[in-house]
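Predict the 3D structure for this chain.
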Amino acid sequence: MKNDFRTLGMQILANGKIEGHEVKSIKELISADGTIDRQEAEFLLDL
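Done. Predicted structure below.
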């Protein structure tokens, strides 16, 4: 899963803004198990 975060983060940061389709991808990745754990929270803060 860590690679999923890294890949998504690099895609988002490529143009410097979070676009609509990226929000959907973030939501799907973060809420896959129904909770937000520490790693997921840190990913959101890093963005």
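The two ends are 16 Å apart (CA to CA).
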